[in-house]
Design brief:
This protein is of the alpha/beta class. It has 12 helices and 16 strands. Helices cover 45% and strands 16% of the residues. Helix 1 links the parallel strand 1 and strand 2. Bound molecules: nicotinamide-adenine-dinucleotide and serine.
């Protein structure tokens, strides 16, 4: 049995991961936290321990880790790509501040640490088709710079201090529970909300913009599976390519129109998001994750679309 602390339980991933971790490890053994406790759902607040916690303050993390004998930290604190580009100092201070504090606290209290990286850790001089596990990483966004720095620091703490750091490079994540927090891939969530509400959708990325994506249930499984993996089988640690599908706006639009034939999408590319998306992989090679810890996503575009439309219809209508 683990004692787990989740930092960022109010976010797109944290809100679903916290609930799932409590199903797996028990409500009392999973502490939820966020800078803004108002972001925590009633379900999370009522089912188990919860704290306000600013992850840029090491002493706040350490106090929870000590009091709850935490042995595993899920650090989900970051400012997503498009938002960070508008305020680079905030992106750096939050992303790196939270990570460095988690690494130090994990070192002191012998905790294992999961911190997601991203497709944003790659850049234009990375091979964009079949992006290898180990390749050139020269991103030109502050988000990407924090992700590459985070991967390096996490490997450093493992090699130098034996901290059990593990990570995946998530692609764009699609969920019907908590809306995304200002990323470049958010359109692939927003489009489903528009379709279910019967609204027209203006796509902020141009036709033909290919990006890796994953449905949230597969992302949650991956986050739990990698922390349960046999460490002797891990050749890599920070961080594994993981993907479940890749598509451009036209493909997701066509898939939705199979179920909502009247749905209309037009294009109005946002120059900031377009520039970021163009520098990210079209599709990654995730062979290492599949071989080293059995990553095996279940949802493709077709199954995800059926599930998203059904769940959002129940939620919104
Ligand atoms: P999010 O923006 O939805 O949630 C982040 C949460 O962190 C928010 O609830 C916010 O209140 C909280 N937070 C912000 N500053 C904080 C601080 N100082 N202390 C404590 N909490 C703070 O982000 P997300 O989409 O859930 O992403 C989680 C992680 O996964 C991030 O590292 C992100 O880079 C990574 N990731 C996400 C995606 C995606 O598509 N969502 C893709 C790749 C990687
Ligand atoms: N979904 C994230 C973003 O667009 C990818 O890391 O920022």
């Amino acid at each position: 049995m683990k004692n787990i602390l989740v930092l960022g339980s109010g976010g797109q991933i944290g809100s679903e991961l916290t609930v799932r971790l409590r199903e797996v490890y028990g409500n009392a053994n999973v502490v939820a936290s966020d800078l803004d406790p108002n972001r925590l759902t009633a379900q999370i607040r009522e089912a188990g321990p919860c704290y306000p916690c600013d992850a840029t303050k090491a002493e706040q993390i350490a106090a929870i880790v000590k009091d709850h004998k935490i042995d595993t930290i899920y650090n989900l604190v970051a400012i997503l790509s498009a938002t960070a580009e508008k305020n680079p100092m905030l992106g750096w201070n939050v992303g790196m501040g939270a990570l460095l504090n988690c690494l130090e606290v994990s070192k002191e209290y012998s905790a294992a640490l999961f911190t997601p990286s991203s497709i944003g850790a790659f850049g234009l001089n990375t091979p964009l088709n079949g992006t290898p596990q180990d390749t050139i990483q020269r991103p030109r966004t502050i988000y990407g710079v924090t992700k590459v720095s985070g991967e390096l620091l996490s490997d450093y703490y493992f090699e130098r201090f034996g901290v059990d750091t593990r990570s995946v490079r998530f692609p764009g994540l699609i969920s019907n529970v908590t809306p995304p927090g200002g990323g470049t891939t958010d359109y692939a969530v927003d489009i489903y909300y528009a379709a279910v509400r019967g609204e027209k959708f203006e796509c902020p990325l141009a036709a033909g913009t290919l990006l890796d994506m994953m449905y949230m249930p597969d992302a949650i499984d991956a986050a739990i599976q990698i922390m349960e993996a046999d460490p002797t089988k891990l050749i890599h640690r920070n961080s594994f390519n993981v993907t479940a599908m890749h598509f451009d706006p036209e493909a997701i639009y066509a898939e939705i129109r199979k179920h909502r034939p009247d749905f209309i999408m037009t294009y109005n590319p946002d120059s900031l998001k377009q520039k970021i998306a163009d520098s990210w992989p079209n599709w990654m090679d995730d062979t290492a994750a599949r071989a080293e810890w059995g990553f095996n996503p279940k949802f493709g575009l077709e199954q995800m679309t059926i599930d998203m439309l059904a769940k959002l219809t129940t939620k919104l209508l």
